[in-house]
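Question thread 4412

I'm putting together a teaching handout and wanted feedback from people who do this every day. The idea is simple: show students a protein as raw sequence, then show them the C-alpha cells that encode its fold, then repeat with a second protein so they can compare. Below is the first pair exactly as I plan to print it.
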Amino acid sequence: MKEYKNFIDGKLLPSKSGRTFENRNPANWDEVIGVFPKSTAEDVAQAIESAKRAYKKWRQIPWPKRSEIMRRVAEIMIQKKEELARLMTREMGKVIKETRGDVQEGIDTALYASIQGRKYFGYTVPSELPNKSCLTRREPLGVWGLITPWNFPIAIPTWKIFPCLLSGNTAVIKPATYTPASVGELAQILQEAGVPDGVLNVVYGGGGEVGEAILNHPDIVGVSFTGSSEIGRRIGEVCGKRLKRCSLELGGKNGLVVLKDADLELALEGVLWGAFGTTGQRCTATSRLILEESIYDEFISRLKERAEKLKLGNGLDEDVDVGPLVSEAQRQTVHSYVEIGKKEGARLLTGGEVYKEGECARGWFYRPTIFVDVTPDMRIAQEEIFGPVLSVLRAKDFEEAIEILNGTTYGLSSSIYTRDLNKAHKAIELAETGIVYINAPTIGAECHLPFGGMKNTGNGHREGGWTAYEIFTEVKTVYIDYSGALQKAQIDTWEG
C-alpha cells in the first residue's frame, strides 16, 4: 500500500481537510492499492493558483521546446510500461493485455505530441489589399480543469494532458476516485521529464467536492470531461453560463451490424472483443448486436458457445479474458439492468449472474451476459449499461439494420460486417455516429485520429489527433500591413 498526496506546484501535499480515502483492487477487495487525500475546494484553489502562476512562463516556451519534454515523457513511459500496466490492472481490473495497450496509447499520444509541437500549422492567406499579409496562429487559453474517468486510467488522461500542456496551457486534473494511482504516477513522470512546477497539478477527491470546485472557479478557462451524459450536462450548463470552453466526451450505446454476406467467424470475434473486452466498461463497447434475419439463429448459437468459454479472473493472470467490474456499485447497476431486461421480455441466452467461483469471490465479477429477442424500444437497447451485457436485435434487411443502429439518443461508435462494398459505403454515409468501423468491432480507436460522437455523446469536440489541439487553443488572426499608407479593407477602394 502506498500513501499518495496531491501534487501542487511540484510538491506532494496532503489535503487541508486531513481526510483520506482508499483505492482497492476490484479483483480482490481485500487489497488496498493506496490511500489518497480527500480534497476540498481550498486544495483546488491552491492548485489553480499554482497553475495560474506557472502559465505566464510556460506559455512563452516555444512549441518545439515543449514538444521535447513530450518526447522525454514517452521515453520514460516506455521504460515503465509494465510497471504502469500492472498498477492499472490492480486498481481498475481489466486484463494485463489491455492495460499494456492502455499505457501504449499514452506513449503513442506523447510521441504524437512530440511531433505536433514542430508542425502545428496556422494559415497564411492572401489579402484583398496590396502590400499586406494575413495569417493565423494558435494561442493557449490559460488554466484548464481536466476531469477523467476510471476505465482508461492512463490513455484518457494523456489525451487531455498532453495537448493541453503542449499548447501552452497549464492544468489541474481530478482523476477518477476508482483509479487515482495511475494519474499520480503519470504526474511524476511528467515532472521527471522536465515539466516545470505548477504546470500540471493533481487534486484527488470526489466529483461533488473537487469536480464542482474546479468547474466553478473563475480562473478556470475551460473544462475537458469524459464521463456520463448526466454529469456532462451539468458541466455544460455551468460552463455555458460562465462562457468557459467546454469539451465533453460522454456515453454511447454502440451498435454492431452483421449482414448475411459477412465473414461470420470474423464478425463473431469482433462481437466478443467489442462486447466483453474491458468487461464492457468502455464508452465504445459493443452493447447492441444487430443481425440480419437469415443468420440470426446460427450466429447467436455460435456466440453463446464462445461467450461461455471466456475465462474470468484476476487480470494479472495472462490467461484471463474478462476481469471484474470496477466496483460493487457498478456490478449492482449491471445486475439491475439484467433484471430490467427480463421484465421487458427479452430472453436471457447466457450469463445474467454474479460470478463467485474460487478467488473471484473476493472481487466484483459478473458473467458475460447476452440477451436475445430484444426490441429497439427496450431500455436494455437504449440505455448505457457499462458492463458485460449484450443485447441482440433482429433486422429483416440492411435498411432496417441501419434504422435500428441509429435509433438511440447516442452516437459514438458503430460497426458493420459485410462483403458488399456498396452497403459498406452506404453505412458510412448513413450511420449517425462519430466513429464508423467496417469489418471491425466498435472499439479500437487510434490516438492520431479524432475521437468523439454525435447526439448525446458529446458537444461536438473531438479528442485525439490534430483536433485535440483545437480544443485547447484559440485562433488569433493577424494582419500585417507594410504598404506605408492607410488601406481600408472592406471599403470599395480597389482601382484595379
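The second pair follows. I'd like the answer to focus on this one:
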Amino acid sequence: MSDEKQEQVLPAGVAKGALRDNLEVVLFAVLLIMFFKTFVGQQFTIPSASMRNTLMIGDHLLVNKFVFAQKQWDWEEKLFPMRAPVRGDIIVFRFPLERNNDYVKRLVALPGDKIEVRDKRLYLNGKLTTGPWEHHVLDKKEGPVPGPWPLSRDPGLYDDIPATELWRYAEPEVLAMDQQGQEGLPGGYRDNFGPYVVPKGFVFAMGDNRDNSADSRYWGFLPIDHLRGRPFIIWWSFREGGTDDTPANVPKGPVDVLMNFVDGARHFLNWTRWDRTGTIPR
C-alpha cells in the first residue's frame, strides 16, 4: 500500500465557498422563522392594561396560531391540537376597526349566546357569569381587584357617562359590512349593555379589566375569521418604565426596536417580573 496522500476530488458543484455556505444557512433560518411565524406561533407583547391583572403591561406572549385554524382534512385535527374557540379562551385577533393591529381579550360569548351587562356584571344566557379573571376598580390607587362578583359584592366605581347614540352593531347592514370603516362608539356602554344575541359567524370579546377595556361593548361583535390564536405561555414579563402602569412602547420602526432592546438590556434584572415569566395565562 502506498503511504502517499491522495487528494479527494469532489464532484462538480459540491465544493462551495464560505460566503455561499453561510448565506444558505441564513436563508434557511429566515425561511424557518417565517414559516413558524406564519403557521405555528408568534410573539405578542401586552401594550395596555385592558387585561390586567390576568395579563400585565409588558407580558411577552407566545401565541399558538393554528389552534383555531379551520381544518381542510380530518387528519389535520389528529396531527395538530386544533379546536373551535370556547367561552373563556384568551384570544389574539385582528382588530376589526384597524386590521393591521392585533388585540388580546377574553372570549365571553359564542354565536347564539344572549349577552347582557347589568350594573357591571356579565350575564350570559340569563345567568350571572363571573370568576377570578373578572377585575373591577374599587380604588384607583390600588388598581383592578379580582372577582368573583356576586350580587352581594359591590363592583366599585360606576361610569356616569350616558350613551349618546344607540348600539348599532347588531343591525344587519352593519354586520354585513364586517365592521369595515366603522368607528368605535363613545362611553356609556361600560356598566350597562344589551341584551343582544351574538349572530352567526361572530363572537363577543371583553377585557378582564372591565373598567378599562375598549372591547366589543364599544366596537361590536368580533368576526370569527379575525381570530389569530391563543396565548400559551408568558415567556418574559418586563415592567415597562419600572412600574406596572407604564404603557408599553409599541415599536413603529427600527429606532423604536433598538430603544426597546437597550432598555430591556439595561433593566433586565430589576424590571423583570420573575414570578410571571414562564407561566401559562388562563
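Top answer:
Good format. For the second protein you could add a caption like this: The domain at 41-237 is CATH 2.10.109.10 (Umud Fragment, subunit A). The first strand starts at residue 41 and ends at 45.
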